[in-house]
Amino acid sequence: MILIIGGKSQGKKAFAAKEFPEYKVVEQYQETVRKQMLDGLDPMQEAEKLFLQGDEQLLIITDEIGCGIVPMDPWERAYRETDGRVNGYLAEHAESVYRVLAGIAMKIK
């Protein structure tokens, strides 16, 4: 599994398409985490299931949402915290991790 992180509209999808065209791509994973939380699921358990599937040709693209002003809404803060923990889990278990900023990819793992 490969994880690509970065801010919104930074070129993550274009980088993935160019460098890993044969991979199955899951985009906007931060929205998957949001939906899982709204549906009462545990996003960490759901992320663990991705690895149980053993799909080595999986590429996950997610926005970094933990930067900037901390939201006042308690649910939004919990969402950001959960998303950050899930991203940490994904990064720990990924074969490679890339951070994309201004269309430039940096391999960080």
Largest sheet: 5 strands, mixed
Mean pLDDT: 94
Give the N-to-C terminal Cα separation: 12 Å
H/E topology pattern: EHEHHEHEE
Q: How large is the count of helical segments? A: 4
Strand order within the widest beta sheet:
2-3-1-4-5
Describe this structure in words.
- It is a single chain.
- The chain has 109 residues and is an alpha/beta fold.
- Helices cover 44% and strands 22% of the residues.
- It has a 5-stranded mixed sheet, with helices on both faces.
- The termini are close together.
What labels would you give this structure?
single chain; 109 residues; 4 helices; 22% strand
Care to give the gist of this entry?
The chain has 109 residues and is α/β, with parallel strands linked by helices. Helices cover 44% and strands 22% of the residues. It is built from 4 helices and 5 strands; from the N terminus they run E-H-E-H-H-E-H-E-E.
What order do the helices and strands come in, and which of them pair?
Blueprint (H helix, E strand, L loop, with lengths): L1 E5 L5 H8 L4 E3 L2 H10 L4 H10 L5 E6 L10 H20 L2 E6 L2 E4 L2
Parallel strand pairs: 1-3, 1-4, 2-3
Antiparallel strand pairs: 4-5
